[in-house]
Amino acid sequence: MMKLWWATSLLWVILFGAIAIFIGAREVDSAGVEQTPELRLVAWIVLGVAFAFIVLCQSVFLFFARKRKSASTY
What we know:
mainly alpha, 74 residues, 0% strand
């Protein structure tokens, strides 16, 4: 169970890192709007909120995985 948690955590970190680099590197978004520093900041804030939600979900999963592991030890 913990290997699954580590694998998904690593996947999320790589995914969010790639998206953050993409946001920082793009000059025009898919709607054709030129990216200003303000728009990039908004995009990073939205990404940060999504990242916080994923961290919360991963933390809850980790809590129950550890609880299950310690219960099966006894």
